[in-house]
Amino acid sequence: MKRVFSGVKPTGHLTLGNYLGAMRQWAAVDQHRADALFCVVDLHALTVDHDPARVRRLSRQAATLLLAAGLDPRLCTLFVQSHVDEHARLSYLLECVATDGEMRRMIQYKEKAARERERGGSVRLSLLTYPVLMAADILAYGTDEVPVGDDQTQHVELTRDLALRFNQRYGQAFVVPRATTPAVGARVMNLQEPMSKMGKSDDSGPGIVYLLDEPDVVRKKVMRAVTDSGRDVEYDREGRPGVANLLEILAACTGGNPEALADVYESYGALKKDTAEAVVEVLRPVQARHKELCADPVFVEGVLRDGAQRARAMARPVVDAAYRAIGLLPAV
Ligand code: AQP
């Protein structure tokens, strides 16, 4: 059976992008077909300016939303990254095979570092090394596949490079993983700035649909989405990014195809109305289950405790073997 690993960062409230690009696939497909691990990657949330209490709150919320989205602890392992020491242990070894040039080429690093500087802050070293920790997250479990949205595929490519390099230098320690992305919904764009990804830590609130937005808030955000100057509904990602984004969201929510849907609509208004309702319907069961789970925090804690135990047992032998392979003396 294939091993699958993926994660979500508690840097903000989870968005429709996180759901359509990743979480929905994890619940509907990955946990059924593979030995799957899903992780709230809280250490990654410390790479930018953060409020400790908020990170704790968002970590709990992310775990609850993953369960609400359909992850079933009988089918998969759900845990919090900082509860398993092997991630940080392995990250250091991988820093010893990665180069600073590789890190500086990462698109997310460039974008996030620029944003930190614009806000007048300094760039944390951990933001630069974040992809190495992500590689450790993946490699510690002998992962074959990493289901992610488009924005993370560069980091998975780097993970592959680091695994291959380590194996070549020090012997076969890691499985070399590959990224998988959904056919539709792999890159949900911001409704107000359709050339930019819908990101949970962005400032542009009205352009972001959060998983816990009330139905009327969702409707308002979608109805106010920026469209393009033309009038015809056409699927053209480059020329008509706003309309293309709505068509993709509608397609991802209804199981349709954005090109075919473009032929169905004669006005932007009708497209927006149907997209808003489709999003409301997709979010409805997730929100209902989230409410139930919030009333049972002991259950959620139990899932995370068991998940961490299982994850530790899987990661430890892989990381111990890498420690030996790279030349470190085993502890006695
Ligand atoms: N807009 C998106 N469209 C499709 N997929 C997306 N993902 C994120 N945004 C979109 C996918 O969701 C999974 C979890 O993402 P993450 O928590 O690792 O964060 P991220 O990729 O850095 O993107 P975010 O949510 O926008 O967070 P911030 O703002 O902190 O950078 C991943 O599989 C991701 O591809």
Automatic annotation (TrEMBL):
Belongs to the class-I aminoacyl-tRNA synthetase family. L-tryptophan binds at residue 137. It catalyses: tRNA(Trp) + L-tryptophan + ATP = L-tryptophyl-tRNA(Trp) + AMP + diphosphate + H(+). A motif ('HIGH' region) lies at residues 10-18. Homodimer. NCBIfam families: trpS. HAMAP family: Trp_tRNA_synth_B. Keywords: Aminoacyl-tRNA synthetase, ATP-binding, Cytoplasm, Ligase, Nucleotide-binding, Protein biosynthesis. GO terms for molecular function: tryptophan-tRNA ligase activity. Pfam families: tRNA-synt_1b. It comes from the Bacteria. Its main location: cytoplasm. It is found in: Cytoplasm. Catalyzes the attachment of tryptophan to tRNA(Trp). InterPro entries: aa-tRNA-synth_I_CS, aa-tRNA-synth_Ic, Rossmann-like_a/b/a_fold, Trp-tRNA-ligase, Trp-tRNA-ligase_bac-type, Trp-tRNA_synthetase. PROSITE patterns: AA_TRNA_LIGASE_I. This is Tryptophan--tRNA ligase. It is an enzyme of class 6 (ligase). A motif ('KMSKS' region) lies at residues 197-201.
